[in-house]
TrEMBL record:
Enzyme class per UniProt: transferase
GGDEF domain sequence ranges: 386-526
NCBIfam families: GGDEF
Assigned keywords, A-Z: Membrane, Transmembrane, Transmembrane helix
GO MF term list: diguanylate cyclase activity
Native source organism of the sequence: Halomonas salipaludis
UniProt domain HAMP: residue ranges: 295-350
Pfam entry (one): CHASE4
Protein's name according to its UniProt entry: diguanylate cyclase
Gene Ontology cellular component list: plasma membrane
Gene Ontology annotations of biological process type: cell adhesion involved in single-species biofilm formation; negative regulation of bacterial-type flagellum-dependent cell motility; signal transduction
Amino acid sequence: MPLPLTSLRHRFLLALGGVLLMTMAGLWLIGRLLVLPALLEEEREVASRELDRLERSLTHNQQLLMAQVRDWAHWDDTYAFVQGQQPRYAQVNFSRSMFEDMDYQLMVFFDSDGNVYWVAGIDPASARYASCAEPRGDCAWAAAVITSLQQRLESVMEGGSDYLFVKPWPALVGISPVLRTDESGPPRGWLAKVRLLDEAWQAGVHERTGLPVSVEPALTAEPGDIHVLLHQDEASLMRVSRYLPASQPGLALNLTTQLPRDTIRTSLRTFRYALGSVVALMLLVIALVLLLLERMILRPLRDFTRFTHSLQDPAKTHSTPAALLARDDEIGTLAREFQGLLEEQRARTSSLLELARHDHLTGLANRRLFDARLDEALITAERNAGSVAVMMLDIDYFKPYNDHYGHQAGDACLVQVADCMRRLADRAEPGLRPLVARTGGEEFSLLLEDSDHDTAMGFAESLRAAIVALDIPHVASPVGSPLTVSIGVASATSPPFDPHALMREADRALYAAKAAGRNHVLDAAEEP
Ligand SMILES: Nc1nc2c(ncn2[C@@H]2O[C@H](COP(=O)(O)OP(=O)(O)OP(=O)(O)O)[C@@H](O)[C@H]2O)c(=O)[nH]1
């Protein structure tokens, strides 16, 4: 079911939900675009430093090998050996245990022409030790690497040169010219030593540096590049490698290690925790804002709306809830303004009602009010088996009065007669409650509720006499001055009570009073 968006509460909920979603998306983007790249960059720097350490360890190893190569090459016995003067040299100095202890894979002696003079070592494939005068037979496995060594002999520097081989195996190589112990020459050949970068070497590096390491030949890639091979955020380890230039063209050594990702994982965990806390805090704030909105705005507005809605029922006279009027904020101001307008509106309505029910000249009830009150009185009388009397009063010869004294004086005369009747009505006994109305130009009607016929006749007679007693001069009247009135009286004593019939009766009696010479009160019941 769709949310009714006409409700402020739902609109606020939707708007604040939107704010929450946008904030979460913003934080997520900050994490993706700023925090994570910064952490990865930091991790890359750490990886680079660790690879530097490994590279330094490799270089140190190379220097160590080189020193050992020079030790052997700058030795009188070796000097004599490569010239064929030390027949027991190989037997005395070479043994499997020496190679294993020194961590050598291969030693090759070259004569001054670069030809192999002696070769000894352990075949990496079969692990068999051999010591031969040439790379054949038991030493045939060394032939391939010896060819590579021979290609470099000419470029070997005086103190010796080192090389990084990746073929046929990843290995460190040191080559030195053969000199006397005091390093005097001339050189009589070369000595080359090969140390494999095998598992034993890798274990040694691991022990020294605390970093697991592996090496592999690589064909492509720019030397020096760092490659982060495992890149997932969740991985606890990452493999990083660097390509080191090999001494063999077109080849490189891929130096790889594994690093724990504790720092980035901890940072990401902290960031996610912070993110979660922010979202939880926002949810709390939104809930609080909604609660405050509900209490401070929505609930008072609902009360206000309910109140304005109740005004549609005219039978009820509600007042603006006191709690709203007592508020000292904008809603309170609105409620007070509204209450002021409401009271003004009610006053205007009641004054309009007053105007609609009264005659503007005399202030007496008009025909509308008279008819309504007559209807009510008859209903009450019928219900209570009571009686109602009405009378019609007309000023005698008012046209000649107007013609003689003028219309303005006519108005004043009407007011004087009206006031006189009102005074008498006010003085009547409480049970009589006469209603005096101006129901025509110079015609008045009176209603006497709960009144018997004789009382009504008595009241009519006192009216007639009181008006004569006003002594309003009327020199133009055929019946003579002062001004007089004629009155017709009719009573409803038994059902059915018909207001029109009753008024017709009174009118008939009035007509009869006029006909009888005016200044008369006549009873409709006595008229034929
Ligand atoms: N000054 C004034 N005259 C009014 C008013 N309303 C009605 N009249 C006059 O009242 C007069 C009524 O005259 P008629 O109905 O002819 O009757 P009459 O002259 O009173 O004679 P009878 O009723 O037969 O005694 C008219 O001249 C009306 O103009 C009013 O509000 N002010």
